[in-house]
# Entry
Amino acid sequence: MALIVVAMGMIFCCGGVVGFLLTSQVTGKIWLVPVALGAVLLLGLVSRIAMKRFDAVLDATVRRRVSLIHGATAEVYVSCLLRDQLPDTWHLFDNLKLDDRSDIDHVLVGPGGFFVISTKSQRGWFRLPPKETQATFNGEPNGWASDATRQALRLRDQVAVVAPDLPAPWLQTIVALPFAHIDAPPALAPDGTRLNRALPNCSIPGVGTCWVLNDDDLLGAIAPYPLPVSRKLNLADVDRWAAALQTLHARHRSASAASESY
# Structure
């Protein structure tokens, strides 16, 4: 739209200049011809600079919107995968807020454990070579696992506030990369699961070593058959954890709505 407006403006100006030049020829003011041509050239230069700056702003806006759309697509995909493939004994919370500025993509609690899942939409190559401690994504150092671990710790602390009578849960963190290739050595979890991709130096008491999984491995790691005994939760405990998460989610939504009303 802006390009059309600029083009119409240029046509209008050029038409005016041509008319002015013809009038100058008739009235004998020939010296005005180079002045008018210089004005046209200056106008063209200014318009070109303005369009370049506008294009840069427009490109940045478009890239940001595309990034948001891709991120939302990945989160919706993982959410649908979990909801469709897991039985009703599992409880899934999407976009569970930790505060006004941050949330957790998915929190899942069920007979197979308590999971904090961070979903990334990026396409590329996630790599953790054997005997190395620094993961990379497309060749750049990557800290997604550490970020997910910090979120899990914050969630555990907030759950303890809304449900102080419940024992602190063991949280398993997961980075889900549904659109990326994962090249990391399989690790043997304490329960015998071999489907996870574990990252070293991300294990904190109360939070499991982070798994990095694509969509093919996600369900098998969360709910293998049969469920490992060490990870099993009885249905009463699952319902209590789900109620605590629902209370936490409702509190943050209420606080967010109250802040927006001012």
